[in-house]
User: Fold these one by one.
Assistant:
Number 1:
Amino acid sequence: QMQLVESGGGLVQPGGSLRLSCAASGSVFSIYAMGWYRQAPGKQRELVATITRSGITDYADSVKGRFTMSRDNAKNTVYLQMNSLKPEDTAVYYCNVPPVTKKTTWGQGTQVTVSS
């Protein structure tokens, strides 16, 4: 089973940028599609972006044009470049292998707070 460790979150002002990283270990990373998810306080976890093993990306409408997901299979890492951040982007961000279920195991996530 793959272990996932997210990092790169922090406090940023509206309009700012952050780059999240997700390092994977324990499995053959390159064969998997990957996804970034987020969970805001009091809300359900939602899918933000996905990337296929060949690098094709897809995004939620709420982040399209602002977020860019990428992967480096040599480093077993996926990234989420977040630009033009808004207060509504505030959440804990997680990576995982889609699709997820109620039995999916999650890492600790990384907190992103967008506030002035």
Note: The two ends are 40 Å apart (CA to CA).
Number 2:
Amino acid sequence: QVQLVESGGGLVQAGGSLRLSCAASGNIFSANAMGWYRQAPGKQRELVATFTRDGGTRTGDSVKGRFTISRDNAKNTVYLQMNSLKPEDTAVYYCNIYIWILGTVRDYWGQGTQVTVSS
């Protein structure tokens, strides 16, 4: 089993910054990819930023140039630095991990952390 614990959400004014953290624990294997997704009310969950299995990154078009994903492998933790926040960034942000093992892939989600950006 894998557990993901997110932290760092909150209320911020437009133009401000927040940093989200996600710590993974449990049966995490080296072949994995961690990242962030978000879901706003009435909208589908969308990619924010994620590491890929080969160590690269993918970033959603709406946050490019403003959000940066980073990680600490020793702590099994990923971070999302969010700068120049906009009201449209308001959403629940979810941490995600894909784990490849024995020819299969499994994914796990955190409980989500609310980010609210006021205008």
Note: The first strand starts at residue 2 and ends at 7.
Number 3:
Amino acid sequence: QVQLAESGGGLVQAGGSLRLSCTASGFFFSINDMGWYRQAPGNQRELVASVTLGGSTNYADSVKGRFTISRDNAKNTVYLQMNSLKPEDTAIYYCNAFVKNFRLSMNTYWGQGTQVTVSS
């Protein structure tokens, strides 16, 4: 089993910054893509940013130029640096990871979510 532990959410004023972290633990062969999703009340969960094992990144248009995703493969950790935050960034942020087990099959895992609130 794989667990994803998130940290770093909180309350910040518009224009401020937060850094989210997510660390995977458990018994697995490797972690492929990792990413961050968010869900605001009444909205569907949406992709914010993702990063491949090799470091290629992908961002939602709404966060390009403001958010940066990165990962430390040695620590099985993915980060999301969020700058110039806007009230519309308010949501629960979820970490996601595609994990390969020792039978070499892939499974997707989710963190428990961390609240990010941006006040105007």
Note: The longest strand covers residues 30-39.
Number 4:
Amino acid sequence: QVQLVESGGGLVQPGGSLRLSCATSGTIFGIVAMGWYHQAPGKQRELVATITSGGITNYADSVKGRFTISRDNAKNTVYLQMNSLEPEDTAVYYCNIGTRYGMTYWGKGTLVTVSS
């Protein structure tokens, strides 16, 4: 059974940094892309960043220049380095994996709170 487990969330002051990790267990065939989404209270889940198996990255405009996504293909692990955090970044962050076979996997999320 495939599981995605996020870690690294927490409370941080504005301007601070956090590094999120998403570890996977189980066998996932044909991974095309891994990514991070976030969902703020009362809002829809939104894309934060994705990275393909070839290393091509894509970012939401709101995080460009502040967040960096990376992955370890051997471990099927994806990371999100978040710098210069803003209160607007407060949300639950979810890890996502998409495969060429149309399968999509989600983690349960990790809460990031940016507040002084």
Note: The chain has no helices and eleven strands.
